[in-house]
Amino acid sequence: MSNKLIVKVDEDLEEIMPRYLEIRHKELGELEEAIKAENFDQIRILGHKLKGTGSSYGFEELTRLGGLIENKACDKIMTEIPECTAKVRSYLENIEIEYVPMD
């Protein structure tokens, strides 16, 4: 049984998707470091990036989680940020993209 999450993404994004995911993985590491340092400004910025780009690339869950992370960081409340970040990691590690026509 696979834990992969199938996400349907516009086929027009196929060429740029590897770079998008590479950047998200890099920023995930930065987010985890910012959490260790309790750097709320950096956490907020990285959450905002997730929120802002996720749905544009077909990843509604990244947008949802990024919004939660950003809001908690704005309020300087660490509660739930590590859990949301772990969910981002799990999501990124388990997505399987299916490119489909969306026009």
Describe the structure.
There is one protein chain. Helix 2 (40-54) runs antiparallel to helix 3. The radius of gyration is 14 Å and the shape is elongated. By secondary structure, it is mainly α. Strands 1-2 form a two-stranded parallel sheet. It contains four helices and two strands.
Distance between the termini: 33 Å
Fraction of residues in β-strands:
5-15%
Strand order of the main beta sheet, please? 1-2
Largest sheet: 2 strands, parallel
3D shape: elongated
Kindly report the oligomeric state of this protein.
single chain
Q: Work out the number of β strands.
A: 2
Low-confidence parts, pLDDT < 50 over ≥5 residues?
Answer: none
Q: Helix content range of the residues, please? A: 55-70%
**What structural class is derived from the secondary structure elements?**
mainly alpha
Query: From the alpha-carbon coordinates, what is the Rg to the nearest angstrom?
Result: 14 Å
Number of helices: 4
Average pLDDT rating? 96
Q: H/E element string?
A: EHHHHE
Key words describing this protein structure:
single chain; mainly alpha; two-stranded parallel ribbon; 2 strands
What's the helix and strand layout?
Blueprint: E1 5-10, H1 17-36, H2 40-54, H3 60-74, H4 81-94, E2 95-100
Parallel strand pairs: 1-2
Describe, in short, the structure shown.
This protein has 103 residues and is mainly α. Helices cover 62% and strands 12% of the residues. The longest helix is centred in the first third of the chain and has 20 residues, at 17-36.
